[in-house]
Amino acid sequence: MSCLNICSKSLLSLLLGSMFLALFPGSVQCAALTPLELAQKLQTRYEETKTMTADFKQSTSVPMSSRKRIGAGKVVISKPGRIRWDYQTPERQVLISDGKKVSMYFADSAQMMVQPVSQYINSDVTYAFFVGTGNIVRDFKVLPPERQEDAGQKAIKLVPRTAHPQVDYLHAWIDDSFMVRRLEIVDHFGSITNLVFENIKRNEKVSSDVFVFTPPLGTEIIEQ
Question: Three-class SS of residue 161?
């Protein structure tokens, strides 16, 4: 299985992104807030977000290698419990959770892996946030960033309070509108996955049909 496939399962990713991808109303600017205050405001806005769609770009770099693995696609979230990540490049991949099962389809290998949500959640540090049961301050230590802050954006570092087998820590870059424009996930081996979100829409109607996926004829179904 390719590194992109692995990253897809651990992120899909991934990601924590959905809880941050929204404007938080108010006059206080990011620069005036501590990392903990930023996390608290992001959590509040996340709780108000019932649906979200966005385009994403993903890049993954591995230690001792100059090659980056690139991916892009669309993410759709509908609370509680439903997520769909569509990787359109470099090859088709689809991850769907209907709240009970998680299905991961890989076009290049013509396989789809299916497992219960209760099993999948142990391999994805961010899944609880997507389905609406996570809390940044409760589940993560919120720290000052170790990465350079981009112009007009503030960053925070998030370390899982309970040791995670795949994720060491995360960084989130937040602009003055309290939108996360970039999410970085670092694993225990030093691999870094970056997600950049664009064209974000929240609390718009999402059809339940989005979370139904029938793989092409001939796909091998692997129940885990």
Answer: coil
Give the CA distances from residue 27 to residues 5, 38, 45, 136, 156, in Å, rounded to whole numbers and listed in that order. Answer: 41, 13, 15, 22, 20
Q: What is the pLDDT of residues 118-162, one digit of tens each?
A: 888 766 766 776 667 778 889 899 999 998 777 778 899 999 998
> How far apart (Å, rounded) are the C-alpha atoms in residues 156 and 170?
8
pTM of the model: 0.80
Domain residues for the domain of 108 are: 3-205
Instruction: Answer for the pair 18, 52: CB distance below 8 angstroms, yes or no.
Output: yes
* In a domain? residue 154: yes
User: How many CA atoms does the CB half-sphere of 222 hold within 13 Å?
Assistant: 9
**Cα dihedral 97/223/116/217 (nearest 10):** 20
162 within a domain of the structure (yes/no) = yes
CATH at residue 83: 2.50.20.10
Contact status, residue 194 vs residue 181, Cβ threshold 8 Å: no
Q: How far apart are CA 122 and CA 165, in angstroms?
A: 9
Residue 216 in domain: no
Domain count across the chain = 1
pLDDT tens, residue by residue, 83-120: 999 999 889 999 999 888 999 999 999 999 999 988 88
Distances in Å between the Cα of 223 and the Cα atoms of 101, 119, 172, 185 are 10, 12, 34, 28
